[in-house]
Amino acid sequence: MSDHYQVLGVSRDATGEEIKKAYRKLARKLHPDVNTAPGAADEFKAVTHAYEVLSDPQKRRVYDTTGNENGTDNGFGGGFSGQGFGFQDIFDTFFGGGAGGGGGGRGPASRTRRGQDALINVRIDLKDAVFGSNKKIDVETAVLCPTCEGSCCQPGTSPRTCDICHGSGQVQRSVRSILGQVMTTAPCGSCQGFGTVIPDPCHECAGEGRVRSRRTLTIKVPAGVGTGTRIQLSGQGEAGTAGGPQGDLYVEIRVNADPVFVREGDDLHATLTIPMTAAALGTVITMDTFDGPREISIKSGTQSGEVTTLKGLGVTHLRGYGRGDLLVHVQVETPQKLDAEQEGLLRKLAELRGEEFAEGRVGSGSNAGVFAKLRDRLGNH
Q1: Homologous superfamily (CATH) for 262-378
Q2: Sheet of 326-333: strands edge to edge?
Q3: Contact 73, 175 (CB under 8 A)
Q4: pTM of this prediction?
Q5: Which of 4, 23, 220, 305 is the most exposed place for a label (fewest CB within 10 A)?
Q6: Superfamily the domain 118-255 falls into
Q7: Are residues 122 and 217 in contact, defined by beta-carbon separation less than 8 angstroms?
Q8: Other C-beta atoms within 10 Å of 372: how many?
Q9: Per-residue pLDDT tens over the stretch 107-122
């Protein structure tokens, strides 16, 4: 029988990509559609067969071990699969494999398992994201059973050594194969591989060593967090079985929309609506911020869309020092429902300014509605 590696012209440690390249090169050369030379068709079949074997990891492993893609060896002739006892079964027999992954020589399995991680969502206000806060949360999860304290047994009792496997967690069985009667190892079905049985499981946790319970935690929300930020609380997740260690708890932050401020990165944006007269004459307006009242200076002639920046009154940088800014967008309000006297005064003003028949100025852009557009685009973070 020809050697598949020699047929493809590759080494026995060739990679899958090298085998593929070698096959493609030979296939283009030997394909019956392009090569009509005597024997080319047979060579093409041999090349294709060699590639089918060596390109399949399982077939290649069997071929490398037995010298035959059928899993047979000339010394046995009949083949392993015909006896219902595969090549892998022999390895399992001699190296401790077995159903259920018990594995020979490893001893009984442990009942103790680490608890799973848990994820919960917590909503906070924008101000909490700016400065950080301590927040109490209720968590319903698995905790250590208070009755058995993780032993899984009813108080006053203890686990008993398995009568079937005598504490080893494994049993051996005899299997008939081409090698004769061989012994395989598998997890004990009586104790599930633990080596012990619990004759009187804890009534409260049903022998699991943990129960469901609600508890209250206080978490520290760092300044600068945003929607999607996750906080890891090590060892605050589910308790493990049989007294196993707790998993971790992950808290994912959701920031509520604020009625006044919109967040963009670490900057805050707000709109300040002022009367037309204040915009024209100028004034000083007190505005409430997260840091308390702040004075906003409105210079005379202020137009809608102008922005006043208050340095350092934005969101605290999550990683680093300092804070972003607060950007105040001015919106000038046009008066409505004028009485006769007010209308007369405005007409007099228009006359004095030569604006009785004023014409608008047409431009390519407008600052009006800047903050409204910003709010619609960003939402809140």
Answers
A1: Urease metallochaperone UreE, N-terminal domain (2.60.260.20)
A2: 262-264, 267-275, 326-333, 307-310
A3: no
A4: 0.60
A5: 220
A6: Heat shock protein DnaJ, cysteine-rich domain (2.10.230.10)
A7: no
A8: 12
A9: 788 999 999 999 999 9
